[in-house]
Design a protein that fits this description.
The chain has one domain: 3-Layer(aba) Sandwich (Rossmann fold). 42% of the residues lie in helices and 19% in strands. It has 5 helices and 6 strands; from the N terminus they run E-H-E-H-E-H-E-H-E-H-E.
Length: 166
């Protein structure tokens, strides 16, 4: 079986675009995390073992956490980080930076596209993830931006798309 056939990537919003913001105890956030966990469990049952995450704050972090929970249960799950730029976390607060470091430490591989942010580095990262996957999980608020662009690209490339509308 080709690696792409068992690979899933993720796209979702950062806290400023989420209806609950940074409040992870909000019932909508809890429900989004539960949806991600259920999707991952179902994909695991379908043979998916490889997951790629962009490692941003917000929904990417929820996805990475749930993939690691899946790996803790089953053992044969890989989490790869696709990082748009080495300074991705430079403006995050200390708590976010610590969580980021913890998640990176748990990843099976890390790909960094460039040293510093440029206007196209996020889409380069997203294209990379889509090009290596057969399914895209997305948490999407319906507005233009990186998640919408990733959804459009994934659909054009023929990926199965599973989306939670926020």
């Amino acid at each position: 079986m080709e690696e792409r056939e068992i690979t899933c990537c993720f796209s979702g919003h950062r806290p400023m675009k989420l209806p609950w913001g940074m409040r992870e105890t909000d019932e909508r956030c809890v429900a989004a995390k539960q949806w991600i966990a259920e999707q991952l469990e179902e994909l695991y049952g379908l043979g998916y073992r490889h997951f790629i995450c962009g490692m941003a704050i917000g929904c990417d972090t929820y996805f990475a956490d749930e993939v690691l929970n899946l790996r803790n249960r089953y053992g044969d799950v890989k989490l790869d980080a696709a990082i748009p730029c080495a300074d991705q976390a430079s403006r995050w607060n200390n708590k976010q930076k610590l969580k980021y470091a913890e998640l990176l430490e748990a990843c099976d591989s890390i790909k960094i596209f460039q040293d510093h942010y440029t206007k196209d580095c996020m889409m380069r990262r997203n294209t990379y993830m889509v090009d290596r996957s057969s399914v895209l999980l997305a948490c999407y608020n319906g507005r233009p931006g990186g998640t919408m662009s990733t959804l459009v690209y994934a659909k054009r490339e023929g990926l199965a798309v599973r989306m939670l509308e926020l």
